Amino acid sequence: MDIKQLLGLPELLDVKKIICIQPHPDDNEVGAAGTLRELALRGCEIVYTTVTDGSASGSTGAATSEEIVRIRENEKQAAGQLLGVSKQIDLGFRDMGDYTEEDVLNKLIPIIREEKPDMLMTVDPWMPYEAHPDHIKTGKAVATAMLFAANKVRFTEGMPHKVPQIAFYATSHPNGIIDVTTHWDTKLASILAHKSQFDNEEWPMLRMYFEHQASQLHSKLNLEQAGFAEAFKVLATEQLHFFPAALYS
Ligand SMILES: [Zn+2]
Q: In what side-by-side order are the strands of the sheet with 176-179?
């Protein structure tokens, strides 16, 4: 039984409005830039929400954390422009700070109710070896927000809104592979827009790693030509609670 088909949910590339919630200013590009570029070209409205200020990054060479935050904010705007992101929202939590998952949830519910997306996108907090607290807290808060954005008992302010689907990137259990070959150069450019993070001596190695990973994924599409792909775990809201088969869907 395909629950998404049963519920009449659109394919990932057919959604009309998406909020992409990233723990740090560069995660959306690394995880999904090619798919986001394709969505933008298809007329999908893309809203970025960035949970932390990126201030814990050690690679900017900036003297103060305020300066790091400023640099990364500019880089985030530049990357978003390359892809066609229409709006950027910052939650402003400190990178590696002591904020809680619930703090993120409380800020996400009003944004979802205001923006009314038909899909959320974020990091997969259940990737088995994910050790970064910002990624785990963000992914889990977003999944919880899926369950409660339509609940007017627990969250009373604003008009309840049900988001039907979520797409996790950086996932170990993908069920959707998107061919992003035509957007690969744009993806790399959008990652490199985060100069303070990627424009350094590690980039050739990282680029090779990204390309190897993306070409491996692309080979699963069994197309004649080689290329690059991105992978997602796409789940319906209904699969986010008491649904053991979600892992295998
Ligand atoms: Zn991150």
A: 87-93, 45-52, 17-22, 119-123, 165-169, 229-236, 176-179
Taken in order 104, 48, 152, 139, is the CA torsion positive or negative?
negative
- The domains located in the chain, with CATH, are 16-199+230-237 (3.40.50.10320)
59-71 residue pLDDT tens: 667 778 899 999 9
CA–CA dist 60, 126 (Å, integer): 29
Where do runs of H (alpha helix) occur along 116-194? 133-148, 184-192
- 168-185 pLDDT per residue, tens: 999 999 999 999 999 999
Separation of CA 29 and ligand 1 centre (Å): 10
- Cα 1 to ligand 1 centre (Å): 34
Distance 180 CA to ligand 1 centre (A): 21
How many Å lie between the centroid of ligand 1 and the Cα of residue 135?
A: 6
Question: Near ion ligand 1, which residues have CB within 5 Å?
Answer: 23-24, 27
